[in-house]
TrEMBL record:
One Pfam family of this chain: Polysacc_deac_1
Organism field: Capsulimonas corticalis
GO annotation terms (biological process): carbohydrate metabolic process
InterPro entries: Glyco_hydro/deAcase_b/a-brl, NODB_dom, Polysacc_deacetylase_ArnD
GO MF, one example: hydrolase activity, acting on carbon-nitrogen (but not peptide) bonds
Transmembrane regions listed in the UniProt entry: none
Protein name listed in UniProt: Deacetylase
Amino acid sequence: MFIGLLMASTLMTVSPPAPRLASVSPQIITHGARTHKWVVLSFDACETRKPAGYDAKIIDILTRTHTPATLFLGGHWMETHPAQARMLAANPLFEIGDHSYLHPHMTKISTAQMDDDLRKTQAVHQNLTGRQARLFRPPYGEYDASVIQEAARFGMKSVTWEVVTGDPDKHVTAPNIVRTVLARTKPGSIVIMHVNGRGWHTAEALPAVIAGLKKKGYSFARLSETLE
């Protein structure tokens, strides 16, 4: 089965957090179902205390080509980019998940700190979009049983990836990204890229990624659609 079960001062004033979603079984998802030739393009928008940006070209390409995607937005990033967060959440092509508040190493902080981070991120998400996330991407893809269980307590399935583009590295060129994605993608693969201005050549590569995957017979889906 493609889901592994594990046993086991801000820039805006937020209102009290909305009621927490019902908890889910602790899960780590690395790919969708292998039953269809589909792929999940995922994009992270994370921000530490150092400012991050927003790559509108990526969203324009996805919208123009009618390509579904799953976006993981950080709490602090949403606070500094409220208009973009609302716009992304309102676009029916996109599914939105949480990506922590300040992008900490979750395995190196306490459960209380994790709780505070997830609670704060969900409050920002709820206030800006009117919804609560059901997906969580741990920063750096780092997780252990405590991280997965804490996310599950907040009603979120944890998600990493299968295909790493390496787009935060300035030396990874657009052709590199295209070759990597086309060579490593399998049915159900989750591909990770960045939409916070740190995917240096992502917008340049994206049209060829989409066209190349289509030529290989792939379709695109939001992550939840692939979880059978």
